[in-house]
Design a protein that fits this description.
Radius of gyration of chain A: 20 Å
CATH class of chain B: Mainly Beta
Helix content of chain A: 10-25%
Distance between the termini of chain B: 68 Å
Radius of gyration of chain B: 23 Å
Number of domains of chain A: 1
Number of helices of chain B: 1
Oligomer: heterodimer
Order of helices and strands of chain A: HHEEHEEEEHEEEEE
Structural class of chain B: mainly beta
Number of domains of chain B: 1
CATH topology of chain B: AOC barrel-like
Largest sheet of chain B: 11 strands, antiparallel
């Protein structure tokens, strides 16, 4: 009986402790506000053609095995994903070709509810111009809800339909958009990303994504 | 019994606290940065890419079914006006030949981007342990990858990977010495960096060096990116 009570106390302590860590309020207050849909319409995309790590909690926690077909085996590239994305045309903008690279952030901290990746984008609109963008995406809420959903027997009620993953970088102000060429040269702005988790009965496990970019031309200098 | 429950409950909380504190979150392997400090200030760092071996294959590609001159890890997007954009993915090496990161090269033609017969290109260099560098330039010629239809299906052909491109040269400086007259693209400019590269600005040059022409018409060679940076104002 004493052993049973001891084990029960320990298990309950671990469960309560894990729930307290997962329910860290910092995860709720650290997001970035969304950009106005009128100024920066979101472009939905699928990140299917990628190599390296997936955007799941296991890869961010450093557990689980990587898909050998996708993995980049060089030691320096073990915690990185790279892929090509086609952003669809719409809202007055043509289709764009883009490259997205994501590296697991070394500043991640379980105490601070930071489980994220540093994302880098280069987006090129044929005949128009190109921009670079960098941002930090925090997947803490995605991991938390996924875990609670698993504990409740894959209850989809615990999982949101969309996660605005863009968050302030733990290392300071390295996020933003930098215009590179064509009519976007010199532009500066902001970037936001939203993750849409795959439904449990979906054929493909990869999530859907959306990206929104707001970029302003450089200020006019008068002589 | 109640006391035992409380003690073990607290022990459970302690286990979680220890796990949360000491969980081995992933970190990136870092190689020594090979930087040269320039006499007049600033710093020079060279990055190397070898083709074709440093191209990163996309999951849907099967290199064994492609012609020798076809490039892997490439996407091409062309609009109805013939304005083309191509994206290429590479591993990135330091001058000691260590793979230290990844790089992408996006190049585009036409419209507001570049003069006829030329392209503008962007390099995104990501070294996971150090951060990212954003580079932009005008090219001396059209360096975009072309999509071609062959017996093996639609393939991407990078100019430098074909023997014909090297008929009259062994080396090519891709970075134009003057900006394009069309649009506002500057040439050989380090636009911005993140993390360890944050606050750095400067210039760069891209050079292609041919190592070997193979009997099947394909080539081997090196892309050298030489960056000159200094802390921005």
């Amino acid at each position: 009986m004493r052993a049973l009570v001891g084990v029960l106390g320990l298990v309950l302590g671990i469960l309560v402790g894990a729930c307290l860590v997962l329910a860290n309020p910092l995860a709720w207050i650290r997001g970035l506000p969304p950009l106005s849909a009128e100024i920066a319409p979101a472009k939905a995309y699928r990140w299917e053609e990628y190599r390296g790590i997936e955007a799941g909690a296991a890869a961010l926690l450093g557990v689980g095995r990587q898909d050998r077909e996708l993995a980049l085996m060089d030691p320096a590239l073990r915690h990185l994903g790279i892929g090509i994305v086609v952003l669809p045309a719409g809202e007055g903008a043509p289709a764009a070709l883009a490259v997205k690279m994501s590296a697991t952030a070394e500043e991640n901290s379980l105490w601070r509810a930071q489980l994220g990746r540093d994302d880098y984008w280069n987006i090129f609109w044929p005949g128009e111009g190109s921009v670079f963008a960098s941002s930090y995406s925090n997947y803490w809420a995605v991991m938390r809800d996924g875990l609670f959903s698993a504990l409740r027997g894959r209850d989809q009620g615990s999982v949101a339909t969309a996660y605005p993953v863009s968050a302030p970088s733990p290392v300071g102000n390295t996020a933003g958009v930098a215009g590179a060429s064509g009519r976007y040269a010199g532009f500066t702005g902001e970037i936001r990303e939203v993750l849409y988790p795959a439904a449990p009965d979906a054929k493909r496990a990869d999530p859907d994504w959306a990206i929104a970019i707001k970029a302003n031309p450089p200020p006019v200098v008068t002589r | 019994m109640k006391r035992l429950f409380v003690i073990t409950f607290l022990a459970g909380l302690f286990v979680v606290a220890l796990t949360t504190t000491f969980w081995p979150l992933p970190t990136h392997v870092r190689y020594r940065s090979l930087i040269t400090v320039l006499p007049d200030g600033g710093r020079q760092e060279d990055f190397i890419i070898r083709w074709p071996e440093d191209r990163i294959r996309l999951p849907s590609e099967d290199p064994t079914s492609l012609p020798a001159t076809a490039s892997i890890g490439v996407a091409v997007l062309e609009d109805s006006a013939g304005r083309r954009t191509s994206a290429e993915l590479f591993r990135l090496r330091d001058t000691d030949d260590n793979v230290i990161g990844v790089a992408s090269r996006l190049a585009g033609t036409g419209g507001a981007i570049a003069d006829p017969g030329r392209s503008a290109s962007n390099w995104l260099l990501v070294i996971p342990s150090r951060g990212a560098l954003f580079l932009a330039q005008t090219d001396v010629l059209d360096t975009t990858v072309r999509g071609e239809i062959t017996a093996a299906g639609a393939v991407a052909v990078a100019p430098a990977q074909t023997a014909a491109f090297w008929a009259d040269r062994q080396r090519l400086r891709v970075t134009a010495t003057a900006p394009a007259t069309t649009g506002a693209a500057t040439t050989g400019k380090v636009l911005r960096g993140t993390s360890e590269f944050a606050g750095l600005e400067g210039s760069f040059t891209e050079t292609w060096d041919l190592d070997e022409v193979n009997a099947d018409g394909s080539t081997r060679g090196r892309i050298q990116l030489t960056t000159f940076t200094a802390a921005g104002t």
